[in-house]
């Protein structure tokens, strides 16, 4: 289909998270994707009055939801795909009050012991669709 971007973004948060924690997870993941994917955020724009407005993301960014085990499965599947950028957000990260606390706790935690409660994805549309295409929007 003409006009469809070749790359896609998506965020998936655990359906078990309360609304506030789901919003927190999604915002952390969105910030990280925006920082790590060059060119994802567009240039500043001017309105008809000449007022400059900060650029926003160039592609839709759906916030989806899935059970905890499916979130963890998506993390594992994304890790196996070379062309997909992903960032996982763990319950450990969400429990920390400072970044220093996060660094300290991560250093003492094995990868297998991290419980992912969210994932942000950016990659080829087909790969992202295969990972999250059937998931519902967060409501």
What does this entry show, briefly?
37% of the residues lie in helices and 22% in strands. By secondary structure, the chain is α+β, with helices and mostly antiparallel strands. The chain has one domain (7-132): 3-Layer(aba) Sandwich (Bit1).
Account of the protein in words:
By secondary structure, the chain is α+β, with helices and mostly antiparallel strands. The protein has one domain (7-132): Bit1 (3-Layer(aba) Sandwich), CATH 3.40.1490.10. 37% of the residues lie in helices and 22% in strands. It contains 5 helices and 6 strands; from the N terminus they run E-H-E-E-E-H-E-H-H-E-H. A 4-stranded mixed beta sheet has the order 4-1-6-5. A two-stranded antiparallel ribbon has the order 2-3. Strand 2 (45-46) and strand 3 (52-53) form a beta hairpin. It comes from Actinocatenispora comari. InterPro entries: DUF2000, Pep_tRNA_hydro_II_dom_sf, UCP033763. This is DUF2000 domain-containing protein.
Summarize the SSE layout with pairings.
Blueprint (H helix, E strand, L loop, with lengths): L6 E8 L4 H18 L8 E2 L5 E2 L9 E4 L1 H12 L5 E6 H5 L3 H9 L8 E9 H8 L7
Parallel strand pairs: 1-4
Antiparallel strand pairs: 1-6, 2-3, 5-6
InterPro entries: DUF2000 (IPR018988), Pep_tRNA_hydro_II_dom_sf (IPR023476), UCP033763 (IPR017021)
Protein name: DUF2000 domain-containing protein
Pfam family, one: DUF2000
Mean pLDDT score: 94
Shape: globular
What distance lies between the first and last C-alpha atoms, to the nearest angstrom?
A: 28 Å
Number of domains: 1
Over the alpha carbons, how many angstroms does the gyration radius reach? Answer: 16 Å
Elements, N to C (H/E): EHEEEHEHHEH
- According to DSSP, the number of beta strands is 6
Structural class given helices, strands, pairing?
Answer: alpha+beta
Please name the CATH topology: Bit1
| Poorly predicted segments | none
Q: Quick one: CATH superfamily? A: Bit1
For the sheet with most strands, the description reads: 4 strands, mixed
Which strand-content bin applies to the residues?
15-25%
**How many helix segments?**
5
Spatial order of the strands forming the largest sheet: 4-1-6-5
Specify the CATH class: Alpha Beta
Portion in helices:
25-40%
CATH architecture annotation name: 3-Layer(aba) Sandwich
């Amino acid at each position: 289909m003409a006009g469809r971007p070749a790359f896609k973004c998506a965020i998936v948060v655990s359906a078990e998270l309360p609304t506030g924690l789901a919003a927190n997870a999604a915002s952390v993941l969105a910030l990280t994707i925006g920082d790590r994917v060059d060119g994802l955020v567009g240039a500043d724009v001017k309105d008809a009055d000449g007022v400059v407005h900060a650029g926003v993301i160039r592609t839709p960014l759906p916030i989806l939801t899935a059970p905890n085990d499916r979130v963890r499965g998506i993390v594992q599947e994304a890790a196996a795909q070379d062309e997909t950028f992903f960032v996982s957000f763990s319950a450990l990260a969400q429990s920390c009050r400072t970044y220093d606390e996060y660094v300290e706790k991560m250093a003492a935690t094995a990868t297998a012991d991290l419980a992912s409660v969210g994932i942000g994805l950016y990659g080829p549309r087909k790969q992202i669709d295969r990972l999250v295409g059937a998931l519902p929007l967060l409501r």
